[in-house]
Amino acid sequence: FIHMKQKKITFMKELVIRTLTIGFISFILGLVCNSNKSYMPYCDPILRPYLYEWCESAEEYGIDYIVVLSGIDSILYEELPEPYLGLCFPDGLTIINANISPTDTFTNKLILYHELGHCALNYGHFDDGGLDIMNSILMDEQRSLYKTFWPILKDIYFNRYDESQFGCTKNPKSQEALD
């Protein structure tokens, strides 16, 4: 009986050691394998949910958000002069106008997508008269249309990304802020 008890204790010790070893190895492998997915620019807490949504959507369209966000230092929620709703600066700083209410979740998301179009995806403005996330003018009366057609607009937005045009996240032609 004592011999069986000792065997059981020895077995339990070995099981604990194996479990801890496997857990430790899994933890280390997780760190190593996911280390390239760790970079995110600082993002104001008000805008953070929209940045995470943007990253998930980018991945769905095969865009490596870690690479395209690598030149962005910060995404801030600060006051901007009229008529700007957002700005993307060449040094990697994106600002969304704090004059937009934090409770206006859709407009904040739309502006974040627009500015990341400039800063992360190297898009210019698409002012062809239709609805487009990259339009330079957002009229109040259009916001409900943007919300209604968001899935289609988002699809157009991410599908126009051309990885071959990605050299850096800054506008190579200008050192001025992009709106």
Question: What report would you give on this structure?
Answer:
The chain has 179 residues and is of the alpha/beta class. It contains 6 helices and 4 strands, in the order H-E-H-H-E-E-E-H-H-H. It has helices at 2-34, 48-60, 65-69, 105-119, 143-148, 150-159; strands at 42-43, 74-78, 86-88, 93-97. It has a 4-stranded mixed β-sheet with strand order 1-2-4-3, covered by helices on one side. Strand 3 (86-88) and strand 4 form a beta hairpin. The longest helix is centred in the N-terminal third of the chain and has 33 residues, at 2-34. The N and C termini lie far apart (80 Å).
Low-confidence segments? 29-36, 167-177
Using only C-alpha atoms, the radius of gyration works out to 23 Å
Q: What is the total tally of β strands?
A: 4
Which shape, going by the Cα principal axes? Answer: elongated
Distance between the termini: 80 Å
